[in-house]
Design a protein that fits this description.
Blueprint (H helix, E strand, L loop, with lengths): L7 H12 L29 E9 L2 E9 L7 E5 L20 H13 L4 E8 L8 E12 L2 H13 L4 E5 L10 E10 L7 E5 L8 E2 H7 L4 E4 L19 E3 L2 E4 L6 E6 L6 E4 L1 E8 L2 E4 L2 E2 L5 E5 L11 E8 L4 E4 L7 E4 L2 E5 L5 E5 L2 E3 L6 E5 L2 H9 L7 E7 L5 E2 L5 E5 L3 E4 L2 E2 L14 H9 L4 E7 L4 E6 L11 H10 L2 E6 L8 E3 L2 E2 L11 E2 L2 E5 L4
């Protein structure tokens, strides 16, 4: 890619000119011009910041931002984990690290007695829209090292002594005053000039994962980023299945998590918005009606929770937790995969016209071309068996609703991807971890690791000029620190976003241009396979 290095002032002028309407623009009233982007509010105000901007296609620009010159004085350390922890198979799941003060000081004293240089540190976090912040807890750390290798060696010594922990760079702590480096990439789609397509894609089927670059290459996309949260562990459902709202070309293929925020897009890139959406559904035949719990997911497993009142341990959103419900009714489309999930219960198989062609128990199997199915477990299995009669119609009705309970029309060309928490609302920082399941009872370590600490992030939104903005920030490296969630909100606002939402991050954070990954994904194995991606397609013929 040919990119000319520009000074920050030059790029600000360039971006302002890109936002101005062209003489060939539609005669319809133009949105308000975008405000000039501000320097990223990361680290000290005097940090250097460079931006390079190039046009990828008419109406689409890529801006690459590097802020700061590094923090060589920040050490590596070993953070001691709580034995047992959460045991999550998710590679992005934060370890259990926080204790109360007395427990932390007791552990630090025990470690000191065993020959380690240990200390207990208070962790405080800033207030956000629906969480008061303050002291999250106390962490215990061992040593301070110039190099990661030395921290790894101390960790090995710690493990050999019967403790658990991980080597960590203190630049990832989320504390102010560090000097970078931050690496942020920004795709901007201006609907006044854009004649391509802006879509969400999940690949050949919902139940399998593909990398963002694979999805972009398959669609011949100009560029793309990873999108919503998804199932990763087979014990939590079908890997690749969206863990929240999913609408693709107008088809609702995944229900919401409570009313968590989602990014709503049109293929024209006009009218992009962040919305809190709910979902409801039912299955109806002449003999009665059954409530629908979900669509295109494994019955009984609700990733990120936020389902119905009988789900355990909660009906509220709880991020990175899989809730359970033994009594469920779940519909399946032919987009799910080669076979519907197998297990105890009843399954009604429907042809393309919605007529029952088979009722099978146990459930699981193939679907006819263009067909669908309804599966029921537990107490609902016998109810579905009585309702579904071969040769008769079984009507599946479901859809999204807004925060006032009104139906949301998802016509062709509409995409919806799940996210959370909110970052910016109506031009103001508005971070909502409590509403969206990141504040978890009895587990401050989750907030500490997921919200407070710096990680790779993907976020998206719309600016005052109506432009769709897709952002990735690299992290988990000494030369790319990543962002805390409050920092992500500050960055979104500085980039001029009127409304913004956090998407899946961590090892999922990826930006591809021309089918090639241009950022530095943090997983040791390289680019992670994900559930879905947001793609910018070239001009439609």
């Amino acid at each position: 890619m040919n990119s000319k290095l520009l000074g920050a002032g030059t790029v600000l002028a360039l971006l302002a000119s890109v936002a101005a309407p062209s003489s060939s623009a539609s005669s319809a009233p133009a949105p308000a011009p975008a405000a000039k982007p501000l320097p990223l509010p990361l680290g000290d105000p005097d940090l250097t910041e460079t931006r390079t901007t190039e046009t990828l296609q008419p109406g689409v620009t890529l801006t690459r931002i590097v802020r700061g010159a590094g923090s060589p004085d920040l050490p590596w350390t070993v953070e001691v984990a709580i034995p047992g922890g959460t045991g999550s198979p998710d590679p992005d799941a934060p370890p259990a690290a926080l204790r109360d003060r007395a427990s932390a000081e007791e552990l630090a004293a025990k470690l000191t007695g065993d020959g380690f240089t240990a200390r207990a540190e208070e962790v405080t976090t800033p207030a956000v829209a629906d969480f008061a912040g303050g002291t999250l807890g106390w962490r215990v750390r061992v040593g301070a090292f110039d190099e990661q290798a030395a921290a790894n060696a101390e960790r090995a010594r710690l493990v050999a002594a019967g403790y658990a922990g991980s080597a960590t760079y203190t630049g990832w702590d989320g504390d102010p005053g560090v000097r970078g480096v931050w690496r942020v990439d920004v795709l901007t789609v201006d609907p006044r000039r854009f004649r391509g397509g802006l879509v969400a894609s999940y690949g050949p089927d919902l139940e399998n994962r593909e990398t963002t670059s694979e999805l972009a290459t398959a669609a011949r996309a100009t560029a793309g980023v990873n999108a919503g949260f998804f199932v990763l562990d087979p014990k939590a459902g079908a890997p690749g299945d969206p863990a929240g709202a999913g609408v693709y070309d107008g088809r609702v293929l995944s229900e919401t998590v409570g009313t968590r925020p989602a990014l709503v897009l049109r293929d024209s890139a006009r009218g992009t918005r962040v919305a809190r959406l709910g979902w409801d559904g039912r299955v109806t035949a002449e003999g009665g009606t059954l409530p629908l719990d979900g669509i295109d997911r494994v019955p009984g497993l609700i990733r990120n929770c936020g389902g119905t009142a009988d789900d355990t341990p909660t009906a509220l959103p709880r991020h990175d937790v899989t809730c359970a419900d033994d009594d469920e009714v779940v519909a399946f489309t032919d987009e799910y995969g080669a076979r519907t999930p197998a297990g105890d219960g009843t399954e009604a198989v429907l042809d393309a016209g919605g007529r029952v062609v088979e009722v099978r128990s146990p459930r699981g199997g193939t679907l006819p071309a263009g067909g669908s199915a309804v599966q029921a477990t537990g107490a609902h299995a016998d109810e579905l068996a009585a309702l579904a009669r071969t040769g008769e119609k079984l009507r599946i009705r479901h859809g999204l609703r807004d925060d006032r309970g009104r139906s949301v029309v998802t016509s062709g060309g509409t995409s919806v991807v799940n996210g959370g928490p909110e970052l910016v609302r109506d031009g103001r920082v508005h971070v909502t971890p409590a509403a969206d399941g990141m504040v978890q009872p009895g587990n401050p370590s989750f907030y500490y690791g997921w919200m407070h600490k710096r990680n790779p992030r993907t976020l998206a939104g719309v600016d005052a000029a109506g432009r769709t903005v897709l952002v990735t920030a690299d992290g988990r490296a000494t030369d790319s620190l990543g962002l805390s969630i409050p920092e992500s909100a500050d960055v979104a606002r500085a980039l001029g976003l009127r409304d913004a939402v956090n998407l899946d991050g961590g090892g999922s954070t990826t930006m591809a241009v021309g089918g090639e990954v241009i950022n530095d994904p943090s997983d040791a194995a390289g680019e992670r396979a994900v559930g879905d991606a947001l793609l910018i397609l070239p001009r439609r013929r």
